[in-house]
Design goal:
Elements: H1 15-22, H2 33-45, H3 65-76, H4 81-88, H5 90-95
Helix pairs in contact: 3-4
Length: 131
């Protein structure tokens, strides 16, 4: 149903989000980190586009650092490093109809981040920003 509707998922994997879901008064006692990872894995396997993002406006969610952690958590959920990077770049651009964004290509608009290491093989390299 989600796939046929053209839906995408921005999971709540950041630790702050999961802590709020597991709070005693949340009304969601069966939610856990492992359940969240498994849900993302199943949806991704079913072909549902996964988007990386954080609830950066929530108290306790650090801009930048939270996105790096979200990418790492997406790989824990079964996405490859390349797929996690796409979840933060080309997939959202495609889902939101932003042609010429989220890709490195002639004529495309881009903001590039240079890192030490290869984030396509180890997503943690996104934390090693050099320029």
């Amino acid at each position: 149903m989600l796939r046929s509707a053209g839906s995408a998922l921005r999971p709540f994997l950041s630790p702050n989000d999961l802590h709020n879901l597991e709070a005693p008064l949340s009304g969601f006692p069966n939610l856990s980190f492992n359940n969240a990872l498994e849900s993302v894995r199943k949806l991704h396997s079913a072909g549902i586009p996964i988007l990386a993002g954080t609830d950066a406006m929530n108290p306790g969610t650090a801009y930048g650092a939270s996105l790096h952690r979200e990418l790492e958590l997406l790989t824990q959920a079964g996405l490859t490093s390349v797929q996690a990077l796409a979840a933060a770049t080309s997939v959202p651009a495609r889902v939101f109809g932003l042609e010429g964004r989220g890709v490195i290509a002639p004529g495309a608009k881009a903001d590039l981040v240079l890192v030490s290491g290869d984030p396509t093989s180890d997503i943690r390299a996104t934390r090693q920003i050099v320029g």
